Amino acid sequence: MNGNSEIISEIKAYYGEHRHTALVRSFGCQLNVSDGEKIKGLLSEMGFGFTEDENEADLIILNTCAVRESAEDRVFGIVGSMKKLKETKPSLIIGIAGCMTAQSHIAEKIKRSYPQVDIVLGTSAISGLPALLMDRLRGVRYGEDIAEYGDFSAAVPQIRESSFKASVPIMFGCNNFCTYCIVPYVRGRERSRRPEDIIAEVRELAAKGYKEIMLLGQNVNSYGSDLGGEMSFPQLLREINAIDGDFIVRFMSSHPKDASDELIDAIFECDKVAKHLHLPVQSGSSEVLRRMNRRYTAEKYLSIVDRIYERDPDFSLTTDIIVGFPDESDEDFQATIDLIKRVKYDNIYSFIYSKRSGTKAAEMPDGTSEEVKGQRMRELLEVQREISTEHYKRFIGRTMRVLADDVSKKKKGFLTGKSSEFIIVEFEGEPSLIGSFVDVEITGAMNWAVVGRRIES
Ligand code: SAH
Ligand code: SF4
Ligand code: F3S
After folding, report:
1. Among candidates 217, 277, 208, 265, which has minimal Cα distance to 241?
2. 236 CA distance to ligand 3 centroid (A)?
3. Residue 43, class by beta-carbon neighbours within 10 Å (0-12 exposed, 13-18 middle, 19+ buried)?
């Protein structure tokens, strides 16, 4: 299927009766996790079992993220600590995959300073893993495959982490070049998957009983722009909505510059589509947004929010915010605080700006101290905590349909799940309910979740 069958047989033959195990760790976004599932799928075809214990593994693959320096530092720390492990077990094979490998200075650094690494596998080269591995087993000290094939490894099998939640990449890469962001450099230009492939995959997942389908792309709103007008994202949502089965459809991320009325209509009109929109704003200051190359102003962003709230004043929005973009002034930061108070997000994901070499923002002067940035971050989180606590109260007395996810880590005998609005809901229930939809009447709100009572149907 992926042209690897001969090599896969060779690898199986190499290990023979030895039970060989792999540890695959993903560090990045959901797309990265999805790639990790494909790496596992390929390894499973090669006869690998899986372990979480690095001392047990014959092969360790670190599937990395490059979006912030802290993510890269973590990986370098882990690779560094694996030197000892490798000394005690020389047959151990260590591979680095994911977005870090697409930066040539990082690939060089790995090669130069981390001889314990055997394999470097680029984001477009997942299907090249068997060949690299076989070379290594034959005694080649180091191998890398970081070529940009432009394919999406769609034909690669996948071992999904969950039996009821699945993510489905609908497109790869990004054309937006926000000035702070490394993703377009490490993931290449935007490529949409064929609509019939996506629909077939969702149909198969629905038939298998998956309850949540997460459509993934760096900017799902521009899905299809390379398909000659054949299919837009709102159209794709409607097609997926028409697939038989009891499941909820989520998607990430939506770039505000491309959030159209058609998208909003589709969200409201499609019964399977979650009543929640993750709409990353990044900053409340139009001047900062301009320097970020986001191609919308704060006013334009708020006009989208208003259009949504006109249809449903209680609609659930979440966002991403970068604190401390180069030369962000006190006024700029205050504009962000004003914006989050005005929008009343249910949740925000906030990050202190991290300089990524090769991006435009890395060349911008930055007079703001790390201390001030830290202070701003704390203030932002504090304000959001108050907003969430207050805003979550609107759910009290309502019944929410919740996909039970796991046992609660906070309270014994309780389960945790997510509502259509992407709100965490905690309720009393048996673990056997995990993976199914339950109706929960909401009785209280905290700043991170709501609590309720399960209504037996
Ligand atoms: N394509 C998605 C974002 C993917 S990265 C989108 O445009 O919404 C996820 C988030 O990481 C971004 O929304 C941004 O808030 C944050 N981020 C990206 N680059 C960053 C950097 N250099 N420093 C800090 N945060 C960053
Ligand atoms: Fe990065 Fe901007 Fe593309 Fe998102 S839209 S991946 S933030 S460049
Ligand atoms: Fe995702 Fe990180 Fe790559 S956010 S696309 S894994 S740089």
Report:
1. 265
2. 24
3. buried
What is the C-alpha to C-alpha distance for residues 38 and 33, in angstroms, rounded to an integer?
9
Query: Which residues line the pocket of ligand 1, CB cutoff 6 A?
Result: 67-68, 180-181, 183, 218-219, 253, 255, 280, 282, 320, 322, 351, 353-354, 356
Q: Are residues 46 and 141 in the same domain?
A: yes
Residue 397: CB atoms within 10 Å: 10
CATH of the domain at 446: 2.40.50.140
- Quick one: how many helices (H) and strands (E) in the chain? 13, 19
| Dist. CA 31 → ligand 3 center (Å) | 7
Q: Which two tokens stand for residue 150?
A: 């432009």
Structure tokens belonging to residue 339: 């914006």
Q: Is 156 domain-assigned? A: no
Mutation test residue for ligand 1: of 99, 258, 351, the one with most atoms within 8 Å of CB: 351
Domain count, the chain: 4
CATH code at position 371: 3.30.750.200
| 395 phi and psi angles, rounded to 5 deg | -85, -15
Q: In what order do the strands lie in the sheet with 119-121?
A: 49-50, 21-26, 59-64, 93-98, 119-121, 143-145
Residues 157 and 180: their CA atoms lie apart, in Å, by 34
Task: Tokens for 56, please give them.
Answer: 């047990």
Contact 443, 426 (CB under 8 A): no
* Contact call for residues 346 and 423 (beta carbons, < 8 A): yes
Strand residue runs (E) in 99-204: 119-121, 143-145, 165-169, 171-172, 191-192
Q: How far is the CA of 184 from the centre of ligand 2 (A)?
A: 7
Q: Containing domain of residue 98, as a range?
A: 4-145
Mean pLDDT by 10 residues, the chain (457 residues): 80 89 96 95 95 96 97 95 94 96 90 94 89 94 77 72 96 96 94 96 97 97 95 98 98 96 98 98 98 98 98 97 98 98 97 97 96 98 96 97 97 97 97 98 95 92
Please say which residue of 274, 299, 318 terminates a domain: 274
Q: Are residues 226 and 295 in the same domain?
A: no
Ligand 3 mean position, distance from CA 182 (Å):
8
- Which of 352, 368, 394 represents a domain boundary (last residue)? 394
344 and 415 fall within a common domain? no
The token duo for 217 is: 């792309």
* 172/47 same-domain check: no
